[in-house]
Specification:
It is a single chain. The protein is α+β, with helices and mostly antiparallel strands. It is built from eleven helices and 20 strands. The protein is globular and about 60 Å long. The two termini are 26 Å apart.
Length: 352
């Protein structure tokens, strides 16, 4: 097992996974070099909603994603404390709702969670026949409150991480054309971390793109404080509240590498669904229409692949912010670096 503390390492890719890897290696006292060509902030990590929703995602995932997600939910507040710039973080849970005509889909979702969570269901979830947590949504009937879910603002998070890393690490605004054990672009390192996402398709069998589309709106007439998931037979949308009456609305998941603009159909579906939840969205102002492609494996499980001198972390699918802290912690633990030891001792105050 290598002893990387204090050594010269390279991190290729500065999305959320690469940024957290570089951040952790700085905490470990390493000389960190980051290779990232994207100056325009177009990576999928900037498009993400930043939802930390292990229970809501459990419907279409498994226990591995759930357990990793819970670990990340616990790690995020500690990570944010090490950053100088403010990061919006809210941990008041998710409200799962449906229109009355879609109660069958809602009940199916509840039953899936009951089966998968077992005894955890009663402590982590609450069925609300008279929902009062979000008064402006009380007309939607029965709701399921997922208590232990949270969110971070993806833009603020990456901005804060990058600001710190540009001070404490060596930042190379260039593509890594040659990545191999102990070497990036002909420069030698004690270890290389490949966190390129979809750009690593040639090196990770089965890695493919899953397209996501989101809309950011400003809606002064809407006052929702929790993340909301709306169950529907054809699509399940999410509404994520941000500061200053801004809301991120998303739903679609398309098996495609297409990074083109959002379609008219998706835009109409997302906005119509949001309006059906709260009429105040009718007067909202559209701030951004964003699309991007997330890296996924064939079984939608994340990948940590170690070889001498090279570690690849990839395949976070649409769970980037949910999985990244736990995956980075696990990958570094395999290499003899205990992330929690730095966080608990408060060493980050002097290191980053």
């Amino acid at each position: 097992m290598p002893n990387l503390a204090g050594k010269k390492v390279a991190v290729v890719g500065a999305g959320i996974c690469g940024s957290l890897t570089a951040w952790a290696m700085v905490l470990a006292g390493c000389e960190v070099h980051i290779y990232e060509p994207d100056k325009d902030k177009k990576s999928c990590s900037f498009t993400a909603a930043g939802m930390l929703a292990p229970m809501a995602e459990l419907e279409s995932s498994d226990d591995n994603i759930y357990r990793l997600g819970l670990k990340s939910v616990a790690l995020w507040p500690q990570i944010i404390q090490t950053l100088a710039l403010p990061v919006y973080h809210r941990d008041n849970g998710t409200l799962v709702v449906s229109h009355r005509q879609d109660e069958g889909v809602f009940n199916q979702f509840v039953n899936v969670l009951k089966n998968k969570l077992g005894d955890d269901f009663s402590t982590s979830c609450e069925l609300l026949t008279q929902q009062t947590l979000e008064p402006e949504l009380k007309n939607l009937g029965t709701a399921l409150y997922l208590k232990k879910e949270a969110q971070v603002d993806s833009h603020q998070t990456l901005q804060a991480l990058h600001e710190r890393l540009q001070l404490k690490a060596h930042w190379h605004w260039e593509s890594a054309h040659n990545i191999s054990a102990y070497k990036v672009n002909r420069e030698d390192f004690e270890w290389v971390f490949d966190c390129r996402g979809l750009s690593a398709q040639k090196d990770i069998p089965g890695l493919h793109g899953v397209r996501g589309e989101v809309i950011m709106v400003e809606a002064p007439q809407v006052n929702i404080t929790r993340m909301v998931r709306v169950m529907h037979p054809r699509y399940k949308i999410y509404i994520v509240p941000r500061e200053h009456n801004r809301y991120m609305i998303g739903a679609t998941e398309i098996q495609s590498d297409d990074t083109g603009p959002i379609s008219v159909r998706s835009t109409l579906e997302l906005l119509s669904a949001a309006f059906s939840v709260h009429s105040g969205f009718a007067e909202a102002r559209i701030l951004a229409l964003d699309t991007n492609v997330r890296p996924a494996t064939m079984d939608h499980q994340p990948v940590i692949d170690h070889a001498p001198g090279l570690t690849r972390i990839n395949g976070l699918y649409r769970h980037g912010y949910l999985l990244a802290p736990a995956l980075v912690e696990k990958a570094l633990k395999d290499l003899g670096i205990e992330l929690n030891s730095f966080l608990k001792r408060g060493e980050h105050a002097n290191c980053i």
